[in-house]
Design a protein that fits this description.
three-stranded mixed sheet; Glutaconate Coenzyme A-transferase; ten-stranded mixed sheet; single chain; alpha/beta; about 15% helix
Amino acid sequence: MLDKNGIAKRIAQELQDGWYVNLGIGIPTLVANYIPKGITVEFQSENGILGMGPFPCEGEEDADLINAGKQTVTLLPGASIFDSATSFAMIRGQHVQLTVLGAMEVAQNGDIANWKIPGKMVKGMGGAMDLVASAQNIIVAMMHTNKKGESKLLKKCTLPLTGVGCVSKVVTNLAVLEIKDNAFHLLERAPGVSVEEIKAATEGDLVIEGDIPEMKID
């Protein structure tokens, strides 16, 4: 199965030349490290960056240059820094072609829950609500199961929702799945992972058609 970097590498294969892409907190931020050769992508961070590059090497960090998750980042030539109002005008105006988010739960109808666990302290929803309401293409990057081994791909989310019917694709440590027709459609399986293992780890309805190819990461 994949680790977090493997998930990010697979999602990077979804990028297209000239796209503006927003990367959420967690695994999604790693996607900036794996841009395929031959394409140019502008990464947008909701705290006010356009043209975000990969994470800096150790010793080259700038504490004043951070992404939405408070991680130090780099800027590519021609990058811009601006206020949150401008950033969210880009997001709400649908000028971002792809949004990559982490999640605690995803339902088979495309609902996503990624901001709150009842009973635990939380600072607020942040920009997630704007991202899921405005984006036309949302890919979720997450582990297939939680720490208890319970599926995070569900028939219906149990946690407070961030967005309704908005997720188009999910990439986990086990599989790539497309959400359509109120079900998870299995597209690819992680190296060394069997279809049976994916079925056992998926609570939601899973559609399996034909031979499922193994992901090609490298």
